[in-house]
UniProtKB/TrEMBL annotation:
Pfam families hit by this protein: Glyoxalase
Gene3D superfamilies in the cross-refs: 2,3-Dihydroxybiphenyl 1,2-Dioxygenase, domain 1
Species this protein is from: Pseudaminobacter salicylatoxidans
Lineage: Bacteria, Pseudomonadati, Pseudomonadota, Alphaproteobacteria, Hyphomicrobiales
Domain VOC: 7-132, 153-271
Entry protein name: Glyoxalase family protein
UniProt superkingdom: Bacteria
Length: 310
């Protein structure tokens, strides 16, 4: 069993409109945009990162807003819901705030003894806020949400799988253990994590495979401290039979990717070097930052990328 993985690093999804996406996360959820860059493989598409003040691993929601992308159809083989941590006793504030902001899909529920509110993103994305006592992570305090109510980072992701067995075994190999079960949902947790410590597995036999599109999660990334730990994880996964990509430099972290038995794309990302490698912390996410291989496209991109309205 591995011990290098310390919880979630980031979650990357797809959107249909960059400006709408930016507005939702910075104004309705009160997160900070910590990076405005482009997709490495499709540089005419933004890659937007939203997080706490500095982009701490375990707080980072990222998006590829593809213009004219079709809407995703939920199903199995995907991340079903991304869940954020908020302080205990704050769901009343969020219900009122979401109602005022026109956020849809609001539903109160209790799962594994935790109070939560489900809600939809602008493309039908599935989200929830869950009340967590004593989350020591510091929220972003300049996003228009009172500090005592603000999001601290991720709590968990849920995986929708037709058959959970092989993915559960994979997560156990990655250092997670089953800590609770509620109906068709198993909760798994990693010890000594970064606060974003849980993965829920929802088993849905007979449900068709998801068709990814706007509102779908593209991949979920797990955090390791550095490149040395990442290489240890890569070797262990490959020795177990997984097809893992070479290490890829994503400018703000190093990444490896592999497909899970249930169909979900997993990434293992380093905590280093971080989002302040090319911007001062006070100005994260303000300027358009480009990977070196796309720097020559700057004049065209600055003219043609959709303005974000900020």
């Amino acid at each position: 069993m591995l011990d290098q993985i310390k919880g979630l690093h980031h979650v990357t999804s797809m959107a249909s409109d960059a400006r709408q996406n930016n507005d939702f996360f910075t104004r309705k959820l009160g997160l900070r945009r910590v990076k405005k860059t482009v997709n490495f493989d499709a540089p005419d598409v933004y890659h937007l990162y939203y997080a706490d003040e500095v982009g701490t691993p375990g707080t980072v929601m990222t998006y590829f807003p593809f213009p004219n992308i079709g809407k995703g159809n939920p199903g199995t083989g995907e991340v079903g819901r991304t869940v954020f941590s908020v302080p205990a006793g704050t769901l009343g504030y969020w219900e009122k705030h979401f109602a005022e902001q026109g956020v849809t899909g609001l539903k109160r529920e209790t799962l594994f003894g935790e109070n939560r509110i489900d809600f939809d993103g602008p493309d039908g994305d599935s989200f929830a806020l869950v009340e967590v006592k004593d989350d020591k992570r510091l929220p972003w305090l300049k996003g228009g949400i009172p500090g005592e109510d603000a999001i601290h980072g991720f709590h968990s992701v849920s995986l929708r799988l037709e058959d959970a067995g092989a993915t559960e075994e994979l997560l156990k190999f990655m250092g997670y253990e089953v800590i609770d079960t509620a109906g068709n949902v198993k909760r798994m947790a990693v010890k000594d994590g970064n606060g974003a410590d849980f993965v829920d597995i929802e088993t849905l036999p007979g449900v068709s495979y998801a068709n990814l599109g706007a509102g779908s999660v593209h991949h979920v990334a797990f955090a390791v401290e550095n490149r040395a730990k990442q290489l240890e994880v890569r070797k262990a996964l490959m020795d177990t039979g997984y097809q893992v990509t070479p290490v890829i430099d994503r400018d703000y972290f190093w990444a490896i990717y592999f497909r899970t038995p249930g169909g979900v794309l997993f990434e293992v990302a380093t905590n280093e070097p971080g989002f302040d490698r090319d911007e001062d912390t006070a100005h994260l996410g303000e300027a358009l930052k480009l990977p070196a291989q796309h720097a020559h496209l700057r004049p065209w991109l600055e003219k043609n990328l959709q303005p974000l309205g900020d």
